Here is the input.
Amino acid sequence: MLKALREVTGTRYVLPLREGGSLPGLVETDDLGMYVVKFIGAGQGRKTLVAEIITGELGRALGLPVPELALVEFDAVIARGEPDQEVQELLKASGGLNLGMDFLPGSLGFDPLAFEVDSDLAGRVLWFDALTGNVDRSWRNPNMVVWHGEPYLIDHGATLIFHHSWANADRFVGRAYDASDHVLSSSAPDVAAADAAFAPLVTEGLLRDVVGLVPDVWLADEPGFASPDEVREAYVRHLAARTTDRSWLPEVGR
Here is the structure.
């Protein structure tokens, strides 16, 4: 059983982070921590936050370097003190539960020309991105940072794209993953070794544990489903089927 996500309350909105399209922000919380928060009121909506939890926590369970995630309760009244109109509107629309990622102070954006990743880690990251259908780990936008000399994987909102069309989700089970633009495709990724290591670990039990971390409020009222638990089972079925099929495995490094 995985450990439940930490639950904290936002006490101060510190700074907007305009690198991301969803306008995440740096938020101070009541545990004296700092989190990069993705807000429920952003245009991408709650499914981005669902993908962040499922993919991020699956990665952490597999031993990949993903910063700790937390559920951040946010009072929309904080928006009153924000002078930026765009940010103020976002905060007003984001009262309630949002998603935070542990802030890594002093981290630098990942540059594949300046930081070497060994073939083992490259293969594991590529395998993981292929499983979850990550369309946003390219050399243009690596969604990786380097902190204390180690790489970390961030920003998984663009994974699990099948959940944007549940009626067609089965079509994605065996869909091949295009690794041609992947930021680590030039690092001689050992995908075969990653497959041998990771595939046996991604069991239905692990998937249920990971999906169980998603709050009910982000799964409620999903069209075609009677309850949040039904939505959870749909995620489990899809990812379990994809793990079994594995025709999506990229050719890079195989």
Residues 228-245 form the longest helix (18 residues). The longest strand covers residues 6-16. The mean pLDDT is 95. The chain is about 30% helix and 15% strand.
